[in-house]
């Protein structure tokens, strides 16, 4: 009796180790499209404050729904000559969520105080509810 139990146990262990559900492969996350990039970033200076405005990108066959935007800024002194080939160092300065009323309106705004004597460059990056980021927006530049 002991021998048959051992034999059955060995057969069961061998079956568990060799049984499978098919071809094994690394897990694949569900496909999710990143949100579309903003293409209409603009701004206007009122006093010493810049108000950026842009449209909320539409959801489409090649883009997911945006849940918010990260606002990036690069700041250089105006007296420095503008170098077209030099990379700008952008820093994230804010994160703006899309509320239902803003989504219905279709437009977003963000205000940033300005300091005299600087050239400001702004860009946005949309993100979805899971934090996946889309591409960079167009860059808006202003001297103050």
CA-to-CA gap between the ends?
92 Å
* Structural domain count: 1
Biggest β-sheet: count, sense, barrel?
5 strands, antiparallel
**Helical proportion?**
10-25%
Protein name: Fibronectin type III domain-containing protein
Organism: Desulfococcus multivorans DSM 2059
Describe the structure.
- It comes from Desulfococcus multivorans DSM 2059.
- InterPro entries: Ig-like_fold (IPR013783).
- The protein has 2 helices and 8 strands; from the N terminus they run H-E-E-E-E-H-E-E-E-E.
- It has 144 residues and is α+β, with helices and mostly antiparallel strands.
- The chain has a single domain, classed as Immunoglobulin-like, CATH 2.60.40.
- Strands 3, 4, 6, 7 and 8 form a 5-stranded antiparallel beta sheet that branches.
């Amino acid at each position: 009796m002991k021998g048959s139990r051992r034999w059955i146990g060995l057969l069961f262990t061998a079956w568990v180790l060799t049984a499978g559900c098919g071809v094994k492969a690394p897990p694949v996350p569900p496909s999710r499209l990143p949100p579309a990039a903003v293409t209409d970033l603009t701004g206007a200076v009122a006093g010493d404050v810049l108000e950026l405005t842009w449209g909320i990108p539409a959801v489409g066959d090649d883009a997911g729904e945006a849940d918010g935007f990260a606002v990036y800024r690069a700041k250089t002194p105006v007296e420095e000559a503008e170098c077209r080939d030099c990379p700008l160092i952008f820093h994230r300065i804010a994160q703006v969520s899309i509320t239902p009323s803003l989504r219905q309106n279709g437009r977003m705004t963000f205000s940033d105080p300005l300091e005299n004597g600087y050239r400001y460059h702004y860009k946005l990056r949309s993100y979805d509810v899971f934090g996946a980021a889309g591409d960079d927006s167009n860059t808006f530049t202003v001297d103050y």
